[in-house]
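Run: sequence + fe (ii) ion -> complex structure.
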Amino acid sequence: MKLQLEDTRQVISQSWAEREQILQRDVNLFCWSRSVNEEVRQFLNHLLEIDFDPVACPVSQQGLKEQLALVQDSWIDFGIENSDAFFQDLSEIVFAFLNFSQDRSGTMYLRKIDHNACSKFHTDGYYLRLFCTYSGPGTEWLTEDNVDREALGTSNDKIVRDQNKVRQMRAGDVGILKGDLFKYTGAANGIVHRSPEIADTGEQRIILRVDIN
Ligand SMILES: [Fe+2]
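>> structure
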């Protein structure tokens, strides 16, 4: 049975244990609404002060400990210290997310951003994406009744029906976004989202992203 567009929904949950709801065919966003602990928050403030190279690397459940240890070690060269609590937090969500991958692997990106990454609302060509804005303004997204999918690729004023109803994840929230590859299984279309505009505000974001294709 073909899924009706208007049936598509997003799940905002206080519980990470409910993340498998993303696999329901009518769900295209699972958002774990949470705050990071004080130790991680303090570390993120420290991280905002430091320039470091963006991280892009393959990750797998089996090798995650070693893969993250390499990143953590390389950060020492940038003067980034006391990162244990942060990597513990990151490790837990990435490990759990990789369960959604058939071969328990994906690609991880971790970086600081001070520009407007993709300011036009869009969907992406992955299967599932884990996304956490650890610091700064979070990803903006649209409920199905607020998006004109026919207008995707044009401009935000055509794509978004009501600017006042644009939703936004908060710093620390952990999102699992369904991408376009999923719809070939008869599931909902990918979640329509964009990066917040920060170029003129002087704000920075620290973002974690893991893609499963
Ligand atoms: Fe995107």
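>> summary
The pocket of fe (ii) ion is lined by residues 118, 122, 124, 193 (CB under 6 Å). The beta strands are 9-13, 27-32, 55-60, 105-113, 128-135, 140-141, 167-168, 174-178, 193-194, 205-212.
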